Amino acid sequence: MLVAGEPWRPGDQVLVRGQRWTLLEWTAYADCEALRLQACDVGPPRPCQTLLTPFDRPQRIRRSHAIAVLRPRRWLHLVRELARQAHPVGALQAAATSAIDLLPYQLEPALAMVRRGATRVMIADAVGLGKTIQAGLVLAELARHDSFRGLVIVPAGLREQWARELAARFELEPVLADAAWLEGATRDLPAEINPWMLPGLYLSSYDFLKRPEILHAIEHVGWDVVVVDEAHGASVGTARRAAAHALASRARRVLLLTATPHAGDDEQFDALCRIGEVAAASAPLLLFQRSRAAAGLPTGRRTVLLPVTPTHAERRLHRMLDDYSSAVSREAAGRRDAHARLALIVLKKRALSSAGSLAASARRRLALLAEGSARTAEYQLTLPLFREGDDGAEDATPDGVLALQGLDDPARERKWLSAIVAVADKASRSESKIRLLLRFLRRVREPVLVFTEFRDTLEDLYRATAGTGHDVRCLHGALSPAERSSAVQGFIKAGGLLLATDAASEGLNLHHGQGHPGCRAVIHYELPWSPARLEQRTGRVDRLGQRRRVHEILLVARDTAERLVLAPLARRIAHAAAAAPFRSPLLDLITESRVAAAVMDAQPLDLADAPRTPARPVDRVVTPPPGLHLEAEAEASRLVQQRAWRALSRAPPRARGIAATVARLENAALTPGLVCVYTLTLATRSGRTIYQDVVCVRIGRSANLSAQSAEHVRRTVRAFMTDEEPSVRAAVLAGQARALEAATTSHREAVGQLARRDTTIEAPAASTARELVQVGLFDGRALKALETRRRAAGSLLEESRHRLAASGDEAALETSVELKAVLLARDRGR
């Protein structure tokens, strides 16, 4: 029977567009209603659809109290389908259909945000533990709602990989928000429509979003969630950090991903923890920081320090550079110049990388000094040495540092540098590490990943290995995103040799292979001065899904600072990582600036004066709540069962009303009677089901259950519904009172946290984009942009107020108990 004019409820059967549908969710707006529907047709489940009223006119099909008599097998199938649809509060329903392994630790951040209402979370797990998967779980769960609007901020080189992962694992199709997309969207949409305001999942890079003209249009858009990948790259005082914070401050939920949260700089860590913080009294950041051992994963990595004996020319080169460094340091100390040491650090790092790299940098320094580029005396730079805003540019020569003043006498400086260039050129003709690397590659018949810090060294390695018969590919910061993707995909498909700078040390998955077992061998051509960078490199292959032992090989030059300072650090870190149940604090204590000081002084690194535990803003950072890991284990078990039932499921039988069947008892311990199957549902006032359970009640009866005719079954069930069913329903409700109370409390606490976050982001903030650019006084475009921002701020304010009003409907819950199926159990002898 078709009815209209009654409130919608999840589970309602509706008729629209000539087809039967089941209502999953109902959302009311000012002038329309959105109904999320699942088709009721036979066959494999189809994607849900959302229809809007009054544009579509769905008609409710009144629930029938007819009794459908089924065969026992089909009755069991229907009950199993009811059980599959049951879920606790904050269940990760999208995870059941995701193409991922259900590891409990990966479910914890999603449960914290979806079930417990955490609004700001940082996942700082060790490299390779699946931070992208954990973020995808959150996105997939929130994206189930039609009005969802999410933003993922990543380094430019990781956009395509993120898009592939989200599509393959979670069936999410993000919008790749770049200049081409924005140009097309602006052309196709009406002028008053901001493309960023449309619902959807947007995937964009730091360096695109930080552009003032882009940030103008987006900073007042409200988001359901903002995910910031490689969040440590948004360091304090940079445009990246300003943009990420501005966008996260407009989000109901913020998810930060990083494997290096604390690099020994308390100020940087404090700034990282403040991303998305909108008020001093806002909820603290929830920090997940787990090692492989804490996640229960094997740690079978084999680390080998392979000593390399330098040639005579290489030893002479290092001695000459040490003498030059000592001379510059003495004169710089006399004139109280702290900047000259930075240029020496760059040259030292280049020398430990390769003679060819040092020759290129020394030659460049000669040219810069000749051009008078020492004007950078006021230039400020801190370690690590890289240029903000250019992904992977750290493998290029930093001209601003190389131009710093060294010796007081320019002629003497040029003489020193010319001599260094000559010796470096001679040493580069036969480098000891290259010879050792070639011998190693001749013995290996599987893919190999070689990391070097500098592009100059990478080019030398490419020339040396290109003619050896290996399929050689290069990956460095000067490549375009398309070229990077081609190099990575070629290595995954064909194997061979991949030469990479640290442009490939973050985010990429290089352990899988197509047609070959994949890569498990990583060679560090020189030792980086940052322990975190060493872990990032090896983490490209030592990660989830790696089924073989990973071999990490570190080439260490004898009679150099590598042997004296860096090699002991690498060995100590490897031992600590293997033994510690949590992330090793050495990664925080051994900063690049400390290592640089030890290398320049040619002294082993002394950590005696370092704090045992880095300072952390404990008032703003909290650890996961007790019991969350148990909830994750229970949810993983439930999802495994859901998947098993889904694999067994066919199209559910079309049983209108109550399904009934008769079965013989196979267990003599049971007595004849009725088994009644009820669904217990807790739904919001808007109709969203937040909790559903299946309750079975056994009722002993003395009535004749031997007859199996359909009419007899119907009479028996009708008699039960008339005489006993109301009291049984009340008993079900009373017996589940504690579970309903716990579910209600949990849901309301989560809604309350989101409501408090909505309150803090209700008022539009000042423009961050305006702080990044000076607009001309009479620029007409600035006036148009101002009007656009005003409209966006008004939309955000209206949206926030709507959410605050809707939070009341979310907290008001309604309970329903419905009889779904009845089993008439009779003795097997009858």
What would you note in describing this structure?
The structure is a single chain. The chain has 830 residues and is α/β, with parallel strands linked by helices. The chain is 42% helix and 17% strand. The protein contains 27 helices and 25 strands. The chain has an eight-stranded parallel sheet, with helices on both faces. Strand 19, helix 18 and strand 20 (551-557) form a beta-alpha-beta unit. Helix 3 packs across helix 4.
* Radius of gyration from the alpha-carbon trace, in angstroms: 32 Å
What's the oligomerization state? single chain
Distance between the termini: 39 Å
Strand order of the largest sheet: 10-11-9-12-13-8-14-21
**Can you give the mean pLDDT?**
81
What structural class results from the helix and strand content? alpha/beta
Quote the beta fraction: 15-25%
Shape: elongated
Give the fraction of residues assigned to helices: 40-55%
Number of helices: 27
Number of strands: 25
Mind describing the biggest β-sheet? 8 strands, parallel
Unreliable runs? 373-393, 774-778
